[in-house]
Amino acid sequence: MSAVRSTRLSAIAKIGLLLALFPAPARAQAGVDATPPAADGEPAAPAPTIVTPSEAAPAAGAPSAAVAVPAAPSSAQVAPTQDDAKADAAAEAAAAEAASGAASADGEETDHVRLNLYGFADFSYSTPLGKTELGSPYSSFAVGKLNLYASAELGDNWRSMAEIRFMYLPNGSTGAPGTIPAPRRTDTSASDYTDVGRPVKWGGISIERAWLEHTFHPALTVRVGAFMTPYGIWNVDHGSPVIIGVRKPYVIGEGLFPEHQTGLEIYGTWNLGPSQVGYHLTLSNGRGPIDSYQDLDHNKAVGGRLFVKHDDPGWGTLTIGASGYKGTYTDSYDVYEVSAAGGLKVTHPITAQYKELSLAADVKWELGGLLVQSELIMSDVAYTDGLRPPVYPVSGGPPGFAPDHRRVGLYGLAGYRFAFLGIMPFFGGENYDAGAGSNTPASSALWGGLNVRPTARVVLKAQFTHAWFAKWEGPSFGDYNGLDLQAAWSF
Amino acid sequence: MKTRRPFLTACVAISCLVAMSGITTPVGAGEAKTRLAIVVAKDSPVSDISFYELKRLYLGERVNAAGKRLLPLNLTPNSRERGAFDKTVLSMSPDAIARYWVDRKIRGDSGPPKTIEPLDLLQRVVARLDGAIGYAPVTEIRPELKALRIDGKGPHDSGYPLEF
User: What one-character-per-residue DSSP string does A32-92 give?
Assistant: First the structure.
């Protein structure tokens, strides 16, 4: 098996050797520089300045192998006028290596595929302020997200990426909130054979996305696999260091669109001077109990997003988008029977089914340090008759069946990032209506805080949230006040 | 009137101190500006690029020109030309650019253009790599490269946008 090398490791090895042998002149000779400090440039860039056309832009037929600026044949500097012959030799060697790398684009070798490993994590402290009937009354520390990415340019405009989230769950889980009666807490304790059988609690992983894509043209990229649903702003941002606040708006968390889908995505953009028009189209299993790997009906879900982005030197960048999703949720089980003729007969009785139509609109305005964004999302759910889930109203009264309903939510966020320490004060508000048949009334919230980014890779956040509920016939939930502190970082 | 004289004196003194300390920089006092050329290999079929395409290209988006995908190459962030390029084309500070690339990768998009230094080596690689594009001061363009017009304007035309 060919070696798949980490960009950083291979590059660091080369640079380390080079610098060890020729400490001062080697840097200029090889055209390498150490990773610039975050304040000076892209921290996401590979540490050394190694030209990797396969990662930067492997045009069709172009060399896809890494073009390492060659190690110094001597300690002479590659300067425009000092030693032209040596500089030419260095550049020629780079070009020759690029040409030889074309083989990997044909799939004959994968030695030059570079795997980029990176990720993000966050640590939070959350505490309710005052008395609350919602959630835990206790303050808690928690490592929330620990997500690892692996991406690679595969040559000839092929690219892949996987994102894995590591979790403490399912340990301690008690199932979906509101489940009656509450199930017992999951205990994942197991005997640790490396520690004389003492208990250890194992966690799980979630495959956030895993896809392969091929770009035919900037206006046409085809992606297959598991992907984040391309709707709105928040769901695509999704990583703790990227999103401004500590908590996502309630309407985003409610999943009016599926957060992930498994299937096919086509996307692209057209440039029209300072404006850009882009689209996403999706075809997937849709939402279901096991939608990551099996569809339980014949109705594939379809979705899409259309956006227009305008860039103006005076007014900044304005992006306006609209998204849609239409699918059918189905749950069923398999029944194996022997027919009268002696053959095997398999039936799939459906236990739950509803159709959903989700629509969303979003707007984002960036001007220097200013950020303003908003999303309006709605989802209509229509149950198949006879398959409506039971509802036990907390407001009292007899149990019934869930009606068709519409959920609607809206949030708005504004912030301004100052150059000093990357401080961004932000504030926002939201409203969410869970629709008819819900056991929660319409809710609203105001929140605000600070997002501080002392370096590009570290984000410190503080957020105060005040939430309240509309009056209704059911019991009062009271108001909720909470404070969340978070450190999020990418690595 | 008596109280105004000390005030004016103080103003003059402060103005002199500020001018001497270099806090303010005289603009256009005979200081020649440098123009930054966008360069490709001399035999490249590409001869023109729009300002916004250039910006998108260096912000990680795919841009095709003359039927080929362009491959952007950057100087390292601490070089003078890179700073000028980022400011005039991307309109972003070094900190903002650093944040931009971190965020972009977490969203799942591609990473930044590759960096090469020094300027001479970058130009030599641009000359040899199919589709490669870079930048250099107009006065330092290597003979095997050519400067692109930006929105129809060459580096020697008036109104050329890349000047620092």
Answer: --PPPPGGGS-TTS-SS--B-HHHH---TTS--S-BPPPPPSSS----TTT-HHHHHHHHH
